[in-house]
Specification:
single chain, elongated, mainly alpha, 2 helices
Length: 56
């Protein structure tokens, strides 16, 4: 039996298990991403409150 090529899909059962174990991140921003704002006023408030050192 030949080895599968890079274009072939993974084992379907493994894909289902991997997707089921993934954590939902949709309502949260990605780590390290800048905050999003809807208005210029919100942007000004965030810029004024920002500390000079990043918090990771």
């Amino acid at each position: 039996m030949a080895a599968p090529g890079p274009h072939q899909a993974a084992d379907p059962e493994a894909v289902v298990i991997a997707v089921a174990c993934m954590k939902e991140t949709a309502p949260k921003p990605l780590a390290g991403s800048p905050p999003s704002v809807e208005t210029h006023e919100e942007a000004a408030e965030l810029a004024a409150a920002r500390t000079p050192e990043p918090r990771f």
